[in-house]
Amino acid sequence: MKRIISAIVAVAAALMATGCTSVNEAPDLAYSINSPDGTLTVYAGITADGTPLYRLERNGEAVVLPSRLGFELTDGSSLADGFTITKVEYDTADETWHPVWGEERDIRNHYNEMLITCEQRPEGAKAPQSGVGATDPDYTGDPGNPSGKGAVMQIRFRLYDDGLGFRYEFPQDNKLRYFNIKEELTEFAMSGDHTAWWISGDYDTQEYNYTCSRLSEIGAHSGSTRINNASATGFSDAGVQTALQMKTDDGLYINLHEAAVVNYPTTNLALDERRMVFRTWLTPDAEGVKGRMQAPCVTPWRTVQVCDDARKVLASRLILNLNEPCAIDDVSWIHPVKYMGVWWEMITGKTQWSYTWDVPSVQLGVTDYRALKPHGQHGANNENVMRYIDFAAANGFDAVLVEGWNEGWEDWFGCQKDYVFDFVTPYPDFDLERLNAYAHAKGIRLVMHHETSSSTVNYERHMEAAYQLMNRYGYDAVKSGYVGNIIPYGEHHYSQPLINHYLYAIQRAAEHHIMVNAHEAVRPTGLCRTWPNLIGNESAMGTEYRGAINPGHTCILPFTRLQGGPMDYTPGILEQDMSITAPGQHGKMRHTIANQLGLYVTFYSPLQMAADLPENYERFPDAFQFIKDVAVDWDESLYLEAEPGEYIVTARKPRLQTLNSGRLSGKSGAYQFVYKDGKPHDVWYVGGVCGDKAHEATVALDFLTPGVRYEAVLYADAPDADCDSAPQTYVISRSEAAAGDVIKVPMARGGGFALSLRSL
Amino acid sequence: MKRIISAIVAVAAALMATGCTSVNEAPDLAYSINSPDGTLTVYAGITADGTPLYRLERNGEAVVLPSRLGFELTDGSSLADGFTITKVEYDTADETWHPVWGEERDIRNHYNEMLITCEQRPEGAKAPQSGVGATDPDYTGDPGNPSGKGAVMQIRFRLYDDGLGFRYEFPQDNKLRYFNIKEELTEFAMSGDHTAWWISGDYDTQEYNYTCSRLSEIGAHSGSTRINNASATGFSDAGVQTALQMKTDDGLYINLHEAAVVNYPTTNLALDERRMVFRTWLTPDAEGVKGRMQAPCVTPWRTVQVCDDARKVLASRLILNLNEPCAIDDVSWIHPVKYMGVWWEMITGKTQWSYTWDVPSVQLGVTDYRALKPHGQHGANNENVMRYIDFAAANGFDAVLVEGWNEGWEDWFGCQKDYVFDFVTPYPDFDLERLNAYAHAKGIRLVMHHETSSSTVNYERHMEAAYQLMNRYGYDAVKSGYVGNIIPYGEHHYSQPLINHYLYAIQRAAEHHIMVNAHEAVRPTGLCRTWPNLIGNESAMGTEYRGAINPGHTCILPFTRLQGGPMDYTPGILEQDMSITAPGQHGKMRHTIANQLGLYVTFYSPLQMAADLPENYERFPDAFQFIKDVAVDWDESLYLEAEPGEYIVTARKPRLQTLNSGRLSGKSGAYQFVYKDGKPHDVWYVGGVCGDKAHEATVALDFLTPGVRYEAVLYADAPDADCDSAPQTYVISRSEAAAGDVIKVPMARGGGFALSLRSL
What we know:
By secondary structure, the first copy, chain A, is α+β, with helices and mostly antiparallel strands. Helix content of chain A is 15%, strand content 31%. In chain A, the strands form six sheets. In chain A, strands 7, 8, 9, 10, 13, 14, 16, 17, 21 and 22 form a ten-stranded antiparallel β-sheet that branches. An eight-stranded antiparallel β-sheet of chain A has the order 1-2-3-4-12-19-18-15, with no helix packed on it. A seven-stranded parallel β-sheet of chain A has the order 28-27-26-25-24-23-29. The N terminus of chain A is likely disordered.
């Protein structure tokens, strides 16, 4: 991933003087850069009292009105005004990098950059000296600040054609050394009462349905959009989470998010509804501190994505581009995973994670499970796991997740129990060694499960042993979970210590060549570029919410949650009626079968589950065929139709390199589909999902290779299909297709479609 | 350690009925036990509204007036009243156990016991059923409480001849499963306005001078007794810490403390000065919870030691006896340690822990020390460490501590820096491998130093690697430090998560055959019985406070801090004037040289330091001889004179087994003293320390073997000696002595003496 940068550093010598000359309409904002294509312009500067501001335009129209930058610190000082701009530097970059896995083979990182250095010059300060040494024996100043600098804060702007990223940087030569943030004051002043797809602000969960409303309606509706959750901590009537997707009345799509959240809390956005101004609202730690900083350091990037077409939102790689390159030298052990799991049967209540009802509570190492009476409903038993392995192997999957395999599930939840799991001791009816051997013999890997119950203190104590166990038995992926309130007490899922924990777990996993799929962890902000062993996250309302999920939910997530990285949404639920899956249970999911097939293409993830039970797939073998055939990693992705909450149609071309990379399974379902007759065919998959009202997709097959004929298999909603009244009616049709053909596919309410195209 | 118990279980069949008959003066307190010698009697029972109470008498006189027992819980419920006593059981024990190290070879554990079971019977509850199974498919009760029990709380009283221990127990068959303590309500109602030696209540430090006052004066003086400390969190005007030593006007010594604090916060005591009632005041965690409980579980023991002679306080083994037996099977690697250290020179400011002044702050793994200019004052450099090794080896020591050996000391303190040390990376001028090899060749072990800066999250992340490094290079002991505010944020040094951390560190160390000496950790409560690799703690104001230490301080600590376990007080400072030890520094310590020698006997610790600089010992070779000669582990200990704050005179007979146990040094100074001419002599060491006014000690040599003559070497204060005006004048006299001799030894203000006795 060689980086090609042509540096154009322009240091304005006259900048040291105050009273910068106006260079544009806003007299304070003296410095600006354009995006490479000239569409976007960001202006920055300071007011007369030294308050840093920025604003963003698209083709001369305001996207972000003049907005404040800065911080309040816990020591009572502020980094909000009194600044002088001491330096402005410009740069540009145009490079192409290649993700280990992703929606395409090549990602272009093309931006113009402006770095503004501000300083709060101390009263009567000595003139700055060069160097940071304090070895002069007569030196009597601050040994940590030998050059006598005031507080130095830099703001780095990177402007892309599809949006802006900016962050704060604190260089070492600085009065600031260790400082704690009370509030980050960064604002995003909107130019109107836009339409927004939002979820309530929260320090602990983003597992909510989205609400579509005007900005001015957020405060009034915020409370009612919450649902009961294992751990939810709201903070403001008009708080929302990132990524926040908006649309202006002029049809502009504006998305506020953040990138590369490392050693810093995650932000929410608090809305001043009077002024339509969002402000960062960081997640506090147990002492109320919203960020503990040590210079030199940087904050995460604040991002403002701006597109004139919803499809461009989905095509944007702004968040990934703002992250650091891959930090893992040898990535050969990282691979996409299509998997099944002993999981949906517990979610639906058919079986249990737990083993016994014979104890009121568990004390690990004391409770002797072999002496207890099993309740007979334990899902992770040898026989049942082998049944899943057999089914997964027979249908071209790579792996089988097994939850509830380890001691402790009788009272794991809601007790803020510190020593809740040890991550190494299986229940008596789960033969760790035998089941792994059985799986490996069939070309299947078992996926480990580490539910931490949010006791990260406990997880870190056992992590090394847990990863070693995985290495010993041949697990190469773990699904981790963070359900419930955090231990250390008083921390939140999105506070700085937890942000650090999640990355710690990923880094230690990388040392053990283990891939991580973290559930209930913080929403991703593109860190998978740097740590591609983070192959998945949940961090949004996923399939497990069953009947509570709104039909349009999956048409919003790619605009919001998925901007930061892939989601283990766990699609593929072909039986919507929970009473059929788990007799005695109730509830119905609101999607059609074709919708679930479409998700495998519209939701990008290198980790895709076929979440339903084997017996449910056996009832719909023709529909299940698409799940078997579809790939999960791509050379190319095209966004054919899109509108938040309404519909998404995506076409993707599988990455042959991955299919052929010698994974354990070797001949996965997608491999067999692409390598028909032992040779690679030109293959595309197209998927569509539809929200709360039906939509006819127009699929123009412009992307097919001209002159080549393709076999097209379309999995579509039947004419009467409907997510509520007829969720299981679908039509599968086979035809030939060629470049230039246009296919019209009606999608039902909560419906969708899938289309496979393979060259003949 | 075989336990011999003659069980006398008396279950009163009529107890289920309410309205117990009066059996003593207090009509509510129907149940009682006597101490084995009949001196003490504890009564317990409940009031008409079901509030549990106890009281304690000595020879019919009140020691603790009727005092409340119970809890408030965070869910709004209470375990404070509404109880019925459902069962009372009695037991007795008389066993002798043998500590791995200690003040004597044999410790007798002799007590009578009473276990009172109380239940809050729920309204309209089903009659209790036997068993805890919930496998009946028609069962509709609480699956965690199948027997339908109410809240069950037991109080276990153990009465010894020298005091009472009691604790709460919560059995499994209980409505209570997981419950959080808002307040523990345990009271200790004093019978008068006793004299007390106390330090201010605090959640984070006990590094204070003691104040001697009436109980009624505590509140008024509490604030002024505090001194600046790295991390201090007081909670109440009239809060004090345990162990609290009191004396009644009748000459009874009452000591309130606790034993076996495991998975529970440490308590302070809040005094209701109106009623002279102390109440437990637990240390809250970051969410304000004062104890997270999971039944079955027990609290620490609350202790009331009662002695009619101050010497019996020092001889009491109440706290150790209330702890669990040794949990380590193979203890052969645990041994006493007499050591020196590259430490006092940093404390006094002669050298630095840090290596450079060339960086304003450090980022481990980023900061390249080899590229920085050393400031030239780094104490832990190869040459200096070798000098200490040479000196320690030449003078019969076992080990040399080296602080400041690892990267990070430039900004380790006061920043609440998470990743503050990695515990494995030495400074460029500290050659870990070479120095260990050099030390081992001379029969010396290096003692590792792990300053955590109270970032226990970071310490736990690096602990395994740190211990492995110690194993690799042959370190078998670590001094750990917990200076500053705790990370996890919002926790305190004495809150439950930290209590768990300290034990975690000790247990993991035991797995690595590493002995632990934890500074700034919680005050010990006898856990060294269970985990004898915990060979030391600081947990009080130690020598490092230099001139701030009151002369009487060392005459109080054995009554208070040392009741829970040994202290690494670091005695042996022969040069009181800091400007001589570290030119340019100032301050004078307030003790005589003879006082420092006496401390090696009056302060029991299996880990004893000769803390002063080699060059200071070279100036006083005759006095230093006692430090070289003295042993640190004992077969027998006698307390000849004692009065809190005034004087302590102790005689001890060394444990030959330890001296002969083949430690690395093999022929330590004490070994050479005892094994004169290659054969073991009968040896006793006597030490005295004196407080703020001079005292003449009377040493009756009744303990010597009759008919044997001994060489006696007395190290005494000179007639003009005084801790302030003449701290360095002493007289060394040699004579012969025999059983029955009585030696009168004048001790100066802040003075003391040492006496070695070796059979001829």
